[in-house]
Design a protein that fits this description.
The protein is an alpha/beta fold. The protein contains 6 helices and 10 strands; from the N terminus they run βαβαββαβαβββαβαβ. The radius of gyration is 17 Å and the shape is globular.
Length: about 240
């Protein structure tokens, strides 16, 4: 696991977008496609906006969701709402290249199984994500893998439905799916994340994020999350 510390969240978003663009260019050149799994949040939203301005082979890019809240179409709480606004209106990406989790279905378990089949169609069997962009909660959660939720123990499915977390159920990629990813990119900003980030870096498996594969993982964090006071941009890279 490597760590890069930058001065602020805007710098993190730009660096993350540049990293994703480079990985996408390599992936499409070597494998003919690039499957990117994205999470929600303020800084990831800015990352997507910056990514839309990058020159990359969009024709070979597929966007899938790391997780999604169970809410109606267009709901501002939906990660998909930001995803579409940031990319479809600003990048040469076709709507069918964004693969939305079917959280509007009345049968969520069947919907999770359907999304798993869709992932297999675009990313192989078993499906392998080229890059999974993850966030980190102050409680150590990532994706919708929250402390104490039974979804943490799902080992036989790549997509599952959670219990209620912060007033909503979620659909989420599980550890088996995330841990097959070729690369993991963590985007972590804000002083409230500093303790969780320290535990993630230490490999603390008592928090959900600590159970994600550390091999080929990069954390891009701001100085607040890394509990460092900096002037300008500071980069720190650790194995």
């Amino acid at each position: 696991m490597k760590l890069e510390i930058l001065a602020d969240s805007d710098s993190v978003a730009l660096a993350a977008a540049a990293f994703i663009a480079a990985e996408a260019t390599t992936g499409v050149r070597e494998r003919g496609r690039f499957v990117l799994a994205v999470s929600g949040g303020r800084t990831p939203r800015r990352t997507l906006s910056a990514l839309a301005r990058e020159a990359l082979p969009w024709h070979g890019v597929h966007i899938v969701q790391v997780d999604e809240r169970v809410a109606p179409k267009g709901d501002p709480d939906r990660n998909l709402t930001d995803l579409r606004a940031c990319l479809l209106d600003h990048a040469p990406l076709r709507e069918e290249q964004i693969h939305a989790m079917p959280v509007e279905s009345p049968d969520l378990r069947a919907a999770a199984a359907s999304y798993e089949r869709e992932l297999s169609e675009i990313a192989g069997a078993p499906p392998v994500i080229d890059l999974a962009q993850l966030g980190l909660g102050a409680d150590g959660h990532t994706a919708s893998l929250a402390p104490g939720d039974p979804v943490l123990d799902v080992a036989d499915s790549d997509v599952a439905v959670t219990g209620v977390y912060e007033s909503k159920r979620r659909m989420t990629l599980t550890y088996p799916m995330l841990n097959r990813s070729r690369r993991i990119l963590w985007i972590v900003t804000g002083i409230q994340k500093s303790e969780a980030l320290s535990r993630l870096r230490a490999g603390d498996r008592s928090i959900p994020a600590g159970r994600v594969n550390r091999l080929h993982a990069l954390i891009i964090a701001d100085s607040a999350a890394a509990a460092q006071r900096t002037r300008g941009a500071v980069k720190e890279v650790q194995p």
